[in-house]
Amino acid sequence: MSSTISPSPPTPFAARLKQVQYFWSPRQTFADLFAKTWMEPAIPFTVLVALLLVFSTIVPNYASAYNAGSMGREFAEFGFVAIAMGLSLISGGIDLSVGSIFALADFVALMGFSIWNLPVPLVIVLTVLSGALLGAVNGFFVGILRTRAFLSTLVTLIVYRGAFDLLTLHWSEQMAMSSASSPLWDAIGNGGILGIPSDVWGLVVIALIGHILLSRSRLGWHLTAVGASPRSARHAGISIRWVLFSIYVVSGMLSALGAVFFAARLASVGSQTGDSLAFETLAAVMIGGVSLAGGKGTIGRCLIGAGIIFVLGNGLIQMGYPGQVTTAVNGAILLLAVGIDVKWSKNRGKAIQKSYVNPTYLDYGPLPDAREGSGTPYAMNDRLRGAEAIALDQVEGPEDIILDREGRLYTGTRQGWILRFSGPSFKTRELFARIGGRPLGLAFDKDDNLIVCAALMGLYGVKPDGTVFKLTDQTNRSWFKLIDDSRLKLTDDVDIAPDGRIYFSEGTTRFDMHTWPVDGLEGRGSGRLVCYDPATGKTRTVVHNVRFCNGVCLTHDAQSILFCETFGLRLMRYWIDGPRKGKTEVALDHLPGCPDNINRASDGGYWLALVAMRTPVYDVAMRMPGFRMRMIKQLPIDEWLFPGINNGCIVKLDADCQPVESYWDPGGESHPSLTSMREDRGYLYLGGLENNRIGRIKLTGVDPTWTGCDSYWGKRRAAP
Amino acid sequence: MRLESSEDVRINAAAGVAGVALPARTPSGLKRLTQEQIVLITTLVLAGIFAVLVPGFATVQNILTLLNSIAVLGILSLGAAIVIIGRGLDISQVASLAIGAAMAAVVMQAGGSIPWAICCGFAVSLAIGLVNGLVIAFIEVPPLFATLATNLLMFGLAQIFIVGSTLLVYVPKSAASFLALGRNVAGVPIPVLIFLGLALIVHLFLSRTRIGRFIYAHGDNPEAARLSGIPTRPLTVLEYSLCAVIGYLAGLVLMATLSSIDTQIVMGTEIFNVILVAVLGGVSLVGGRGSVLSVIAGGLLIGVMLNGMTLLNLGNDTQNIFRGLVLLAAIVGDNLLHPRDEETARHGD
Known about the structure:
The structure holds 2 protein chains of 2 kinds. By secondary structure, chain A is α+β, with helices and mostly antiparallel strands. In chain A, 42% of the residues lie in helices and 20% in strands. The longest helix of chain A is centred in the middle third of the chain and has 34 residues, at 323-356. Chain B is built from 14 helices and 4 strands.
């Protein structure tokens, strides 16, 4: 079987150039990339990696194992405190006292080890407990009494610092004189396992536990909820007070844990201990992407931010710059990073939205003459004017219609229902099934199950008794596409091969139920033809990058699948059997409008519905991507240029998919933008996406006994 | 219209801006007192206790010493109050104090005339305020974070370009007329006079001028203020600039008193004392509340406490702890007297 492809006119050079210019769209890549949630931590992470690379090229011996070890040791202490600060920010508050708690815990650890000579495990427990106690004071005020976190922890910062200064004044000399030693204590402070410092191991373990708790546990979810919106959290029955209390206790414990390693490493207390920790960790976690507004942040982000601040400060010192340069650079980077962060988080949605639609060059070729009396197969007439109305005002949006063996009429509606009309003039209205989504394409399988493409949900089936079952809602994810297209969204039409395999279309993977016409303006094509095999239960995408994949129809010889490319204005053929199996080709090009559904006719040909009509202006616009871009950006959507939808048109094709004649409702008085039609027992039934009725006209000169079910599955039995 | 209490201010600001009159509440008992009244009463009681228990407290000389000790803190708090009333926060105020003053001292050392030196320092401080204001108003960085960053940035830059790594700058002996700022006039220390004069000016500014009222409106409800036509962005820049310039004035006073300025205080906790003085007296961090009286009340309480403890021979660290504890009690007390309604509380208070 061969199909006729009309030769395209030679493309002028300027048009070719435009084609190339608009073939790739960096803007679209940008939009897809930044719509990803992993992009936010990815940016600071890239900065961190870049910093490490820069320093390892500038600073001699920076990348050596020794330097990495000593840096890791210092970083881990900082990392504990950064996590503590990060958790308090996620809870919607702030713990300014982390540095003072760190200092006091450092003192407690050295006191226990050097002066009281306690065993090392006891020292660790005692230190962490002291951190918990100091954190509990914060938690008591902020959580239980609900005072303001900023002020309360500010005061505890001063009080703890005062206590620390007082204590070190009395004890620092004795500590320095102490001769206490323990191999375990040295291992904690200076040793490691597998060449990795012990406190890095500690940090890894704590970070993993913390990550699981924060993202997978009840406490973590409650914490995020309280941080994001305390009022909603309270309404949901979460005990805000105890969640906040426990998070300040945890924050204190983490700071104390960092102090244990610090104490074991340095074995002395200085008045500066932990002095600038509050500022540095606050800066770190905010650079990592933990929001001051609360409810947003992860352990990973805290550590990435901590890494940046630490590597920067450490690297500048290793390069021999005095401390003040580090201070200035820290300040400048903070200001810059947060400025970008604020502007970005405010405008992210807008930026993605603005860059989401990227029109391309599309030449639709010659426009066939469809004027009345032009003598072409597309010539306008009024043969649908007298269509009989079925179910008038009893149905909302019968996008597709189908009749069963008994001659009952089924359709999907806007409400997500399948309605069934029966009786001599279809007066009996039954709610056959509630699927949900937006039921579009319909087909009967050989067991008389109704297979339904429910847009936004996937492929579903309805048994003759009305039971709904799911067939599939996802397919294989395509490689090299940023958008996750594994989930089926805009499933559109369906047909079934004799071996039971179900072929169905998905209009577009980039737009949804309310914005799909924009896919036409973009003209890039993100639709696909998908095949579900009930025998294996597997779903595979068979044809990619279709410009809105719409109607699907198995040819009469069951060798190929015809599918409509709505915004490519053509009918395509995908061979499922025979010598050309697996190949895709154009079956009918240069249509006068956008094809929607296609179904079998009784004479071996096909019926094709045109949902919208081409106009010369629309054709020109499709060759001007820049114009469409400006239109989308500068005009409200109701003033955009779309194909004309105020007509109803059905085209009759012969067995070779060539147009024979057409049926029009000029002006779309009762059947505008027809999307579907079915021939059954000498009648042609009409459905439209937005219509309030189903139409029916009597066909002349056709087999009055032909039905779709018989055509697919053979005559089985007479109507009961 | 006199603005006696923070409550009045809130109602007036809201009514003036949004055209909505809030129903007047008639609280009873303790709640009838405003926060600054409570703080003032607490201060008087504390002073009374000290006067009885501590010898040498209730003397004119000691009272003047007390006032002198809080003059710099008070001046700083006046600036901080302007920003906080506008629902902001300026962590970098001490930077404008120390770096501006250090700039002036460096110019004096280099032989510049005193007015020229003061102008140079003024320019540096104003620049810090402008950077804060512009970043907060136009880039919309949260104030806490923006001023934290400028604090670090300016401290680093000051060390690189102005003071070097010595951090401590002395005022040359030749600038005797400048050092006179730290002396007494008729027994009253000039810093105290400057504090009181500035308090009067800021009070008049906040309560009697249109821009002052706009600052209350801005802090009470920034969105409503913007929608009713107040240019909130330029206003924000003005708030932070004023804060920085007042900080610079405090820096000059401090430098005149000590004959030197130690820029190390930028990294210290002094700014927290400033904020606490303002907040203690009723300049709420939610913005739009409080007045100059609040700052005076908060400053006096701190001053009486510190002075009494010094006379009792308590060490600096002990004083810190005591002060912290009293402040914690004040915060909790405020919370009990004015509990937040969980349903209507603004997020991130």
